[in-house]
Amino acid sequence: MTYFIAVAEELHFGRAAERLDMAQPPLSRAIKQLEEELGAILFNRGRSTITLTQAGERLLVRGNNIMAQLEDTCLEVRRLGQGAEGRLRIGFVGSATFGIFPNIIRSYRANHPEVNLSLNPMNNADLHRALVSRELDVVFARPTLKDAELLSKQLVEEKLILALPDVIDTEGRTVARLERLMTHNLILYPERPRPSYADFVLKAVEDAGFKAPMRIWCMDLQTALSLVAVGEGVCIVPESVANAPRKGMKFLRIEPEIARTELSVNYRLDDQGVHTRNFVAIAQKVARKTF
User: Fold this and answer.
1) Most exposed among 83, 123, 167, 210, judged by the fewest C-beta atoms under 10 Å?
2) Hey, CA dihedral for 25, 31, 33, 39, is it positive or negative?
């Protein structure tokens, strides 16, 4: 098509050959072969001039459109290959939104504004399933997902703190001891599937030498915080949750420290896509700057 367009625009085989940086004989043979393949004469060949036939005129119009579409397609494919366009499906646990996750999303959007992001809040078990089944590309999990098919990068490690109703008189204290749990309901999430963050909290409490009192189960962090705010009990949450003050509750550090929880970014071992690699690199960069 490139050869034909050059001859059709120049209407001179010599000038077209020069434009294409090739000799004239092979160009003439290529045009002749194209005419034979199409079953149509494309040029009226005179002694001193050539002109386009009707078939040639139609092919020139369509050929220019085809070449323009091909150029656009090559550009799109190149940008997709560079990670400048396309889509990225991201899953995250609810607690991630209180910490580093929003900054990571903002940074990625600033660097790759034309990539479409799909953001999906889920619990750890659903994140694991969706990542393995390729429904998601990258997920923020707490605790880190354990699977031979996945790669995990720790972004931040946080202390556990206590969320409690603000009607409880703490006498100005900013720290709490686990003995306080013995007199309040312990709100845990998610209720299912298990194991989950709830099991991590229960183990931390038991390892500290305490048995959790009456337990109230719910499905997610937001529900747990709402239950705390209305006075149903206390909840052990990652430290970053305190970054967003909530009416009806307050936060206390737990001393002595019982455990730490990590937020990690996870993706498939066989995922060689540039979008995932770019996103993980930005997530790690933001984490290094933040902590």
Assistant:
1) 167
2) negative
